[in-house]
């Protein structure tokens, strides 16, 4: 086993493809920071870049990832990823507060949600995609439970008047204003979860992908092979080129915007705050260790029972995404509901820097863990 691990480490350390992706990530993020710091990029451009990535680039990436051939083993792996995701975020949402019991409630809520919910979509996916091109499906499946918790429980926890304040009352005891507010919170929560371009693209793509397993569905033939009529990329080939073009904008825009986000916070102030160092350590070290241990446990069950396989690509995607800085949405919640917004902003700045610094270290750790017998090399 030690020979296998050492061999895997040597291979990854010698892999220019891997390190080129990591160096490119760091270089473009630093470029974004410098251009924003020197006022070449206006700070308000950050929101525009993020919007383009979230509404156009990432949905295209999500859909394109599922426009590939499916087999039973791949489907089983992605379903396991989904279950691990729900288990992980359940653990994190309900236990993260334990790390901050000595702080006042507003700070507790903000720090706990920042630790539990990383910027998996905006920060994580472009980096993972640069390292492993075939990681898109796992990344988007892992993001389904993330989005459910981000827009439901995290929203309720971060709101000034959590839903629990009203649901504990009998319906007859609620005032008209409380009933309207309760209804609006539910509507907003459901809208945020389901009316989301990335999630919609993920669900559509997953349906197209998984239905290829239906016997007899591959009835269309353009001369090379039979395929499902839902495979729009094969049915109308320009779709593939359109999605490829749109997904290409994700990585450079996301990395530049991340650099601009770092410039927005007060890095000097963040460096002096012990609480932020403590929270950043939990975010970029402890949280990834938790997901890694969870994956190792689940992968061991699959390996020794022979029921499913877990590959190193999925392991890498999930750990790197978890090691990302806090989700932008959580920071937006803290600002909107006045829950320690300065702490959230500075934590994002410091943890973004630490996420970039620790990225190569995590790649080495993941490579060593991925060499264990419960993981396969396939993507």
Automatic annotation (TrEMBL):
Organism: Spiroplasma corruscae
Protein's membrane topology: Multi-pass membrane protein
InterPro entries xrefs: Mem_transp_PIN-like (IPR004776), Na+/solute_symporter_sf (IPR038770)
Subcellular location: Cell membrane
Alphabetical keyword list: Cell membrane, Membrane, Transmembrane, Transmembrane helix, Transport
Bilayer-crossing regions: 16-36, 48-67, 79-99, 111-132, 144-163, 193-214, 234-256, 276-300, 312-335, 347-375
GO terms of biological process kind: transmembrane transport
Single GO cellular component term: plasma membrane
Pfam families: Mem_trans
Signal peptide: none
Family of the protein in this entry: Belongs to the auxin efflux carrier (TC 2.A.69) family.
Domain of life assignment: Bacteria
Protein name: Malate permease
């Amino acid at each position: 086993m030690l020979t296998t691990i050492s061999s895997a480490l040597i291979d990854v350390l010698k892999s220019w493809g891997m390190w080129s992706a990591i160096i490119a990530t760091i270089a473009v993020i630093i470029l974004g920071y410098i251009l924003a710091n020197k006022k070449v990029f206006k700070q308000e451009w950050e929101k525009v870049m993020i919007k383009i990535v979230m509404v156009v680039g990432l949905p295209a990436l999500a859909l394109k990832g599922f426009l590939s051939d499916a087999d039973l083993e791949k489907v089983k792996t992605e379903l396991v990823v989904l279950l691990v995701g729900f288990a992980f975020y359940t653990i994190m949402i309900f236990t993260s507060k334990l790390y901050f019991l000595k702080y006042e409630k507003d700070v507790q809520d903000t720090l706990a949600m920042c630790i539990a919910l990383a910027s998996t979509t905006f920060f994580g996916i472009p980096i993972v995609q640069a390292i492993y091109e075939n990681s898109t499906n796992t990344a988007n499946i892992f993001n389904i439970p993330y989005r459910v918790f981000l827009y439901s429980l995290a929203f309720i926890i971060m709101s000034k008047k959590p839903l629990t304040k009203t649901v504990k009352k009998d319906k007859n005891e609620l005032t008209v204003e409380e009933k309207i507010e309760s209804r609006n919170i539910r509507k907003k929560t459901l809208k945020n979860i389901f009316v989301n371009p990335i999630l919609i693209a993920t669900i559509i793509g997953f349906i197209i992908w998984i239905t290829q397993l239906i016997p007899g569905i591959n009835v269309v033939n353009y001369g090379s092979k039979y395929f499902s009529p839902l495979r729009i990329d094969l049915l109308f080939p320009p779709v593939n080129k359109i999605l490829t073009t749109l997904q290409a904008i994700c990585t450079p825009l996301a990395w530049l915007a991340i650099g601009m986000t770092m410039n927005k916070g007060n890095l000097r102030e963040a460096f002096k705050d012990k609480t932020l160092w403590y929270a950043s350590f939990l975010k970029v070290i402890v949280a990834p260790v938790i997901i890694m241990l969870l994956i190792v446990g689940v992968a061991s069950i699959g390996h020794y029972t022979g029921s499913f396989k877990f590959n190193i690509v999925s392991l890498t995607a999930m750990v790197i995404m978890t090691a990302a800085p806090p989700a932008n949405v959580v920071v937006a919640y803290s600002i909107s509901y006045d829950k320690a917004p300065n702490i959230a902003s500075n934590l994002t700045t410091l943890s973004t820097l630490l996420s970039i610094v620790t990225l190569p270290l995590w790649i080495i750790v993941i490579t060593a863990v991925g060499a264990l017998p419960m993981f396969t090399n396939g993507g």
